[in-house]
Here is the input.
Amino acid sequence: MKLNRRQFFMGAAASVPFFNIGCSVSPRRLKPSETLHLGVIGCGGMGWSNTNIFLQDKRVRVTVCCDPVRKAGDWNGAWRKPVGCETFKERIDRFYGDNSCRVTTDWRDVTGDPSVDAVLIATPDHWHAAIAIAAMKAGKHVYCQKPLTISIAEGREMARVAKETGVTFQVGNQGRNSSVKRIAAEIVRNGLLGECKSCRVALPSGSGGLWGVPVITEKTPLPPYFTSEGWDMWQGPAAHFDGNAFIPGIHAPMAWRWNCRYGGGMIPDFGAHELDTVQWALGTERTGPVAIENMKVSGFQKNRDLFTWAAFFDFDVVYANGFRMHVTNVAKEKGVYRGTIYHGSKGDLVEGLYSGQPVKLGMPAHLKKWREGKDLKDGDVRLYKAAGGHSHESDFIDGIYENRPIATDCEIGHRSTSISLLANMCVRLGLSGLRWDPVREVCVGPNSEDLNRLLMAPYANGWSL
Here is the structure.
């Protein structure tokens, strides 16, 4: 039986009989002596990356794992990691030395479990909003992988519920806990580059076939790791393809991000890190730009019904004060590496976080002797830094125990994700740009009627927000 949100919250799901329409369960704040019980929803590559870090935090006990796939072996051309909820249980039980971790294929068993204090959501993107909202309504704190959502309206509702319920919510863009990104943002925010009117952000390119996933566009039988019920749960609110078909080019692990029903392609996937840092540096993390301009895309796959997103993109993000963020693709052969270059009147600042880049932080000459934390003056902006050098995951746990703000709350994640989603709306409609009202969060001006129809992802199969 598939339940929509109204049926679910009225108690039609036996696992959560305490839900009422318009009511939320208050989140539990733990004492230092208490152990936080964590439920993992989404047992794939990113799910394990986060879970492995949570396991190292002695305040946390992972008690339940959920995935519609129980066990899949050599599932992925890039990571080659066995996944599934039973695979996670085996690893977690081995870590704790017992057999206590539970498994389920239905995420409602986790969000409806009163013994679970917090959830990690590491599902494909199309599931983030529904699961996160249900978890918050049930009083669970939420760590949700990036990109936060596949539509702007989903993100707005998530941020609203996060504020209403008072849960601790961390978006998994761990760049917020990078000293490189924080230092760059502090330099820009405090005017140490002089007047900064623009930056260039380079993101990886790619479309179907990336990471060793073959571009197979024909229908195939369900893989052995999917039961028919598991396949229905994996798709959830996404409309089914022809005859509920499994198409490896967009349904194989990691391949789902190439279709708009499940993900947003490379712009939100990697923009969740780099565009978020620019928002941080500009101090616009709770608002956003006013326009997307000069959108150019190329490298579409032949079947755009399956492969929504272009491999290559180039566009400008424009803010009310005239600042322009130019977003383009990494092109190492041209010396364009992943990261951001801020252009200031006193010099350029190069910020790069990941391997393969020529520098981590390239300072202009007048800042060569600048020392982190020592050369900021009284009254200068000092940006958030996790306590004790904690990881992004442990920063989330700190926030739960201490009931305080953390690195990337839901509103911040929503606003940063919205930039990528606005760009994707231009791609979907073949437009060179759009005008955006960041206060009302609607498109204005030319083509606004068509654009605003894309603000909410369609929900199907009996699911709704």
User: Anything to note?
Assistant: The radius of gyration is 22 Å. Residues 286 and 412 are 6 Å apart (CA to CA). DSSP finds 13 helices and 15 strands in the chain.
